Amino acid sequence: MGEFALINRFFKDICPRAQALDHPQALGIGDDAAVLAPVPAGHQVVVTTDTLVEGRHYWADVDPQALGHKVLAVNLSDLAAMGAQPWAFTLSVSLRSPRPQWLTAFVAGMSALAEEAQIALVGGDTVGLGTDAASPESFTVTALGLVPMGQALRRDGLAPGDCLWVSGTLGDGQAAVAQRVFAEKLLWPQPRLALGQALRGLAHAAIDISDGLSSELGHMVRASRTRAQASGTSAGLYAEISLLSLLDCLGSLVRAAMTDEGLDPLQACRQAAASGDEYELLFAAPEAASAEIMRLGRALDLPLTVIGRVRSAAGSAPQAEPVVWIDAQGRRLAPDLAPAAGFDHFSVQP
Ligand code: ADP
Ligand code: MG
User: Fold this and answer.
1) Per the confidence metrics, is the pTM higher than 0.90?
2) Does the pLDDT value for residue 281 go beyond 60?
3) For a FRET experiment, which of 19, 90, 199, 252 has its CA 20 to 30 Å from that of 234?
4) How far away, in angstroms, is 345 Cα from ligand 1 center?
């Protein structure tokens, strides 16, 4: 099958009737570039991109339907974390060979999520690596979203006193990789789009947990300190997290390890805090918003758990560590008992 036959057969029809292409002057796949419908008045465009590489982000024998879902899902998770509504996306594929059965399943997984999120595939690129190439296959999605002007959920808006919340459960992303088992969490992440959009105007800051709670918390605190410093307010922010509060949101694989293998609760929480591939939202909101957020969780049928607070260091010296882990008695955990940092491509070898 040639490149153009492949594009026409597999990629031409992924949610083509979504809003971004629903305009007489709009143009989808087939020309040198796509031309989208006008951006709705009073909105900003949000852009994100993410790549999945064979052997690095997924195993070569992955279920292709799950992979098609996941490469779009990880991008939608970034839109969710910004409070954005999905609009349009592009897809670049680098394949050793065009395998029709494999691609049919890949596209089925991607189409189902695209329809659900109402996001149109508007273009992309197709690269043949050569059948005997040693290069890994890879898939890149660039997703565009819309957000009302000035209302994007940023990661740098933490304020002292804010409650820190996480959606869903934590720990199963890493547990599934370690056990090399099938896991919903790892293969079929559910981007928290409805939650992200509902948090606009309610949350001060949000981020999605792709590299692990502990490192995402560090990103939020450091970004918020920089912003606070720039605006001349207190820069001594830090996150105080009760490690055992994560017991309330452990994933089922981690829970099973506690009962079946005697994994101790502190160790289970440490694993959950360092686990990547979670795609849950971590967000901060003032205490006054708590009742509303709990109502939101019930309406979305999504567990939302408070795991800690944003504090500001006394005096003028900024708190050195961005994240302070405490035990059930409120005492600071020794550094060797605190969770490890999350995933970093350039500090961890596969
Ligand atoms: P060009 O050579 O002009 O850059 P291509 O030949 O790469 O264009 O692609 C032809 C058309 O098919 C373009 O509209 C492009 O966006 C689209 N396309 C190519 N690969 C993909 C893909 N994997 N998914 C979706 N659209 C694709
Ligand atoms: Mg061209």
Assistant:
1) yes
2) yes
3) 199
4) 29
